[in-house]
Amino acid sequence: MKKKILVLIALITAISAGCTGGQTQGGGSEGSGADITIAIVLPMEHPSLAEIRDSIALKLAPIQEIGRINVVHKNANGEFSALPSIMQGLVADGTDIIIAIATPTAQAAKAAIEGTDVKLVFSAVSNPVPLIVDSLTDTSANITGVSDFIPVDEIFALAGILTPEAKTFGFVYNPSETNSVTNIQRAKDYCDAAGIAYKEAAALSTAEVATAAQSLVGQVDAFFTPDDNTAASAMAPYAQVAIENSIPLYVGADSMVIDGGLAAVGINYTRLGEITAAMALNLVDGQSTAQNPVIVVQDYSRIINESTAEALSIEIPADKLGSYILY
Amino acid sequence: MPLLLRGSVELGLIYGLTALGVLITYRILNLPDLTVDGSFVTGMACAAVIAQRGHPFMSLAAAAAFGAAAGCITGFLHTKMGIQPILSGILTMTGLYTVNLYIMGGKSNISFYGQANIFSAASKLGISKLIAICIIAALSIAFCCVFFKTRAGLAIRAVGDNEEMAKASSINSDGSKILAFAISNALTAISGAVLAHYQSSVDVGYGNGMVVIALASVVIGESFPVSKGISISFAFAAIGSVFYRIIIAYALKLEVLPTYGVKLASAVIVAIAISLPRLRAMLPRGESRHSDA
User: Fold this and answer.
1) DSSP letter assigned to residue A268
2) Distance (Å) from the alpha carbon of A158 to chain B's nearest alpha carbon
3) Chain A residues with CB-CB distance to B106 below 8 A
4) In this predicted model, what pLDDT tens digit does every residue of B36-82 receive, in sequence order?
5) Most exposed residue of A111, A251, B97, B283, measured as fewest CB within 10 angstroms of its CB?
6) Per-residue pLDDT tens over the stretch B246-257
7) Within a 10 A sphere around the Cβ of A297, how many other Cβ atoms?
8) Which pTM was predicted?
9) Are B113 and A120 in contact (CB under 8 A)?
10) Separation CA A164–CA A108 (nearest Å)
11) In 3D, which of B37, B15, B36, B23 has the Cα closest to residue B248?
């Protein structure tokens, strides 16, 4: 028992010692002249989300170099129950602007900044209304940000050009991802209106993506997966199922095409990051969030994977798809 | 009180209700229950859906009811169907994933900002968030303390201590176990529900690893040099949870450990604390054993 107490005391001492260390660090950055601290928070490590973060950091770097701002990075690494603590830590540290990437991060930030004058800029949130703000133009509560959604109609139009014989689509996605559920709902609305049949298969983890796709083989003519983080992390086995069964695979992110998907009209994450950073810099320059309504990014990257197309013996009509990058 | 400390105390007391639940199954009943990862989110989901419709306080009751139902299923699978307790918990937790999404109308994330929640109702009465959470925690601890002194509570403790003896004293051991699972998961669900109100939002990802977090809180609470009466255990499970949150919050803030280190840190705390008696027994000198007595 004594030992347990000793361990506990040691832990608490270490923490309080750490506290003092942290404070000195904070003082140091103030000494360097940076009077505004921007924190960039990720919910987990993931190619698309990391691309946004890197793009934001790159855009903020010159301002950081001249000492006007101080940039802090945080990552919840999938530990959602730690998100409130991370956000409270940032607010307690005197962070001025929190850039929260993805929905759960933005919600935790919103709860933590309530009653303070910390500003929140969210990024990569597919449906900010009503999850974060009441309307895209009402950004008076110190909260604004950048929203994105994939152009579902363009993806189906592309499918109509590349594989016109595809009549039934198989939707493979993770129903616990907000962005996926939103985009799948939009895809369903589109298909219902256009008279396209569809079937669904849920993949709750990266390990289940290929199995989910396999379960649809024989029932569908094409696969469709939006910007689903789970599927994006399991593109290799997913694409293998698609190619082995000669099923074209349409996706909602360029990284998913690079990893084996057939084609995508997806969000340009670098551009998304740049727009987010620009918005944060407006706030650094003294603008209010009310002056910066939510921006919906509509810069898309269009990309087709040539080797996948070849494996599926699909010909790419260059005249119709001139704006597409061939990978 | 510094902002981060206050936030950690608030979160610690909220997650502390889950620690109370885990204390019941793991310490009193002596059965590990993994249902918690699912029933925590069930509580969050009920809270969000019902608070959205304008009934913040009823949402807590609904969360408790659904949590208790989840606990009953685990208890039923274990006692009546003869499935091992860990597997029963895993099965219920897995099933709850679908149930939780169903409750949330197929959405994985719900916000109810701006709508009446228990904290906005409390602030109208001049009660701050921290006080409101303290009241909820105190009521829950008081409930546990009183309940485990009643006939039904004593029966659960008897089953946990010595099931054969309890049966011989004509205690309905299956019923007692199911009741314990139900109360445990009801507390867990209330914990999730209060967190949902605190955050004004719900995401299905919040339940991950909740069992180990709660266990870590319980063992931290047990490391305090106090008598081991049952009421004291409940109070210190909640206090352990507060300490756990403070440790995690400062560790994250100071980047002592990366966020992905939280799980390992929790697992190590639990493993060391639980194996301490064995480690001590391995020591050649008997001194430390005396100090514990």
Assistant:
1) -
2) 28
3) 175, 181
4) 999 999 999 999 999 989 899 999 999 999 999 999 999 999 999 99
5) B283
6) 988 888 777 777
7) 20
8) 0.78
9) no
10) 44
11) B15
